[in-house]
Amino acid sequence: MFHRKIKMIYLCILCIVFSIFIILIIGISNRKTWTTSWLEYNLTLFELYSNIKKANAGDAKAAYALGMYYSYIKSNDKEALVWFERSAADDFPPALYELITYYSFISKPDTELRKKGKEYYDKLLYLKEINDLAAKYYNKLSDGDKRKFQ
Predict the structure, then answer these.
(1) Over the stretch 4-46, which tens digit does the pLDDT of each residue have?
(2) How far is it, in rounded angstroms, from Cα 65 to Cα 99?
(3) CA–CA separation, 125 and 27 (whole Å)
(4) What is the pTM of this model?
């Protein structure tokens, strides 16, 4: 009788551990889904290396992921801008959005940086007519950002 109780306890513990393991596996496999949360860009060293390799080969999504990583995880705006601009060069709407919002903070409207922001705004404005993702990001812009670049 005593051994039967011990076996049941071990079986329960094993089921709990197995359940936790399954939950962790499902969580890890779904980690990189396309969301609006910047926390998904907390890249591991392998992911960072992989994205740098892909971005250098011309992958706009990888360059955008690096921009998000440097902007929100590492708080390095200078490095983030480099990657966002590389991604925006391929007309990737999320990168255009990030650059527009960044350049909207420039206070003097006649500066070269505000002119760059206007160029990115014009690209996104054009793309929103032919690209659903671009339309989504254009609609995320605040009315103030839109007025600054119109």
Answers:
(1) 767 777 666 766 766 565 554 544 444 444 444 556 777 788 8
(2) 14
(3) 36
(4) 0.69
